[in-house]
Design goal:
The chain is of the alpha/beta class. Helix content is 63%, strand content 6%. It has 23 helices and nine strands. Helix 1 crosses helix 13 (305-320), helix 2 (31-48) runs antiparallel to helix 13 (305-320) and helix 16 crosses helix 17.
Length: 538
């Protein structure tokens, strides 16, 4: 275990405590459930997961969904606590099932601009939710707009001592970043406890964490009935989706930033194991939260051992310092969370996309989606935007006219290369998109219309290099295109036809398969040879 992992782990442990207390409050459960979940989640993830920055613990989004779920369930508080534990176990089972079914490839539908926008929007969301704690006011709303409105309207009630304590902690956290060898969050928490003790902050109206029991009482599941467990199933999928969206967004964002490799199916299994471990200790749903991951990155985590150190540090903190922890001011906890996310508010990754004129609106849509609709719905909106942009690009026909480059064997777009020369008597066309059901007719009709308008060339070569395979709609469109062009008296040859597409064409129209060439140069040579043997134009 490296020295950097010890430092980063202790720093993260200082963040996990305030987050656990806050997220347990959101779910309406005792804080020890979130603390036990954080310890078990980090240790279990370390056995299977691969991200050195992932801190698998309760998250704000899953806590909110759990709270909504518990409100709909009948029974006493003890009954709901037992059902919450069963729900966490079911989440773990579904994660493991998805991993074994290798459904992690579905993560490929979440593009990098979506991940960047998601991370930016999630950082803003978490920071805004910490401001009421920092200001010492009660503003609760699941809607960000209502939260901001409530904050503004409550300005006259903002508690000055709480603001001063939180602001001083935030300034200290940012200042301590200049000394990366020091566990800044842990030192600030210790200072907060000392200030609370010396100045008796509770008498000045500053909210404190309060006493936290180390372990919850283990419930009796013998009275649970199958119908109660079955009634939980509709709530499992939303929790899995939100945890996967938030966790994969966090893990993938950090892996992209540091050029590291993570595999979605393995991460699904790691999350499943972590949630089962959380259920064993009667915890809450766990995932790779963004704020804790950002804190791990900022503290210089070097391996997965950081999460193990953080879990052990949190356990020791509660076991041997529960009395002092009870005196910890809540504004200090809020400052720790905000400080961990300050660098995640950097808009440069989004601005870069606008400068590139590629996918900027997708990243912006992801960020706004998280802010307006929440994490899960915002991610779904962003994915829809990403798929819509893909379909728009693929369905918009662009066909390039190719010419021979410098008298060699290479053929390139004449519109982009001034030194490319057309082959006399032959028009070579290349669709810029793969042919599939949504664009095949439009693309091939575009080529057909240009062939009709071209009276100087009696031969046509169509390069299908972009189409790895063809669906039945694209195949039918290609057959119709071939019939139409040949009916006009022109020869047609196909170039760079991939094996899967060639196999399909061979099955449907063997005569066309005989006019498929490996390269554009081979196709041109074949056409010239046919024209020469029949005495046609060359």
């Amino acid at each position: 275990m490296r020295k950097g992992d010890w430092i980063a782990g202790l720093s993260v442990a200082g963040l996990m405590l305030p987050e656990a207390v806050a997220y347990a409050g959101i779910a309406g459960l005792p804080p020890q459930r979130a603390i036990c979940a954080a310890i078990a989640g980090c240790l279990a993830y370390g056995l299977l997961g691969r991200s050195r920055f992932a801190i698998v613990s309760p998250t704000s989004s899953s806590a909110a969904i759990l709270a909504a779920t518990l409100l709909t369930l009948p029974g006493s508080a003890d009954d709901k606590a037992m059902l919450a534990t069963i729900l966490v176990a079911l989440v773990g089972v579904l994660f493991l099932a998805a991993s074994m079914a290798r459904l992690g490839n579905l993560a490929g539908f979440i593009s990098r601009p979506v991940l960047r926008g998601f991370a930016f929007g999630l950082a803003i969301t978490i920071v805004l939710r910490q401001i009421p704690v920092l200001a010492g006011v009660a503003v609760n709303s699941s809607n960000i707009l209502h939260l901001v409105t409530g904050l503004v309207s409550s300005i006259p009630q903002w508690h000055l001592p709480s603001i001063l304590v939180g602001a001083a902690a935030l300034a200290a956290l940012i200042g301590l970043r200049r000394v990366p060898l020091l566990p800044g969050a842990f030192l600030v928490l210790c200072a907060g406890i000392a200030v609370s003790t010396i100045f008796d902050l509770s008498d000045h109206g500053v909210a404190l964490v309060g006493a936290i029991p180390l372990l919850p009482a283990w419930p009796d599941f013998s009275s649970r009935q199958w119908r109660e467990i079955i009634a939980l199933l509709p709530f499992v999928l939303p929790l899995v989706l939100i945890l996967f969206a938030e966790s994969w967004g966090t893990i993938r964002s950090f892996s992209l930033r540091h050029n590291e490799t993570v595999e979605a199916n393995r991460e699904l299994g790691a999350l499943g194991l972590a949630n089962l471990a959380s259920a064993v200790v009667q915890g809450m749903p766990v995932g790779a939260g963004f704020s804790a991951g950002a804190a791990s990155e900022a503290a210089g985590a070097q391996s997965r051992a950081t999460a193990v150190v953080a879990a052990l540090g949190l356990a020791l903190l509660i076991a041997f310092a529960s009395g002092p922890v009870a005196l910890l001011p809540q504004p200090v906890l809020a400052a720790v969370v905000i400080a961990a996310l300050t660098h995640a508010l950097d808009p440069m990754p989004l601005l870069r996309l606008w400068r590139l004129k590629r996918d900027g609106y997708i990243a912006l849509g992801a960020a706004l989606g998280v802010l307006v609709f929440g994490v899960l719905d915002g991610m779904l909106v962003a994915i829809v935007l990403s798929l819509a942009a893909l379909l728009k690009r693929m369905a918009s026909p662009y066909v390039a006219r190719l010419g021979r480059l410098a008298g060699g064997h290479d053929f390139v777009d004449i519109a982009r290369h001034a030194d490319a020369v057309p082959v006399s008597g032959i028009a070579v066309w290349r669709p810029a998109q793969p042919l599939f059901f949504a664009n095949a007719d439009a693309v091939l009709n575009t080529i057909a219309s240009r062939i009709r308008a071209d009276s100087n060339n009696s031969c046509v070569v169509v390069s299908l290099e972009e189409s790895f395979d063809l669906d039945s709609t694209a195949l039918d469109a290609l057959l119709e295109f071939d019939t139409t062009v040949r009916a006009s008296g022109k020869r047609v040859q196909y170039a760079r036809v991939h094996d899967r597409a060639r196999d399909l064409i061979e099955t449907a129209a063997p005569e066309i398969a005989g006019r498929c060439s490996v390269s554009v140069d081979d196709a041109v040579s074949a056409v010239l040879s046919q024209a020469s043997s029949t005495g046609g134009a060359s």
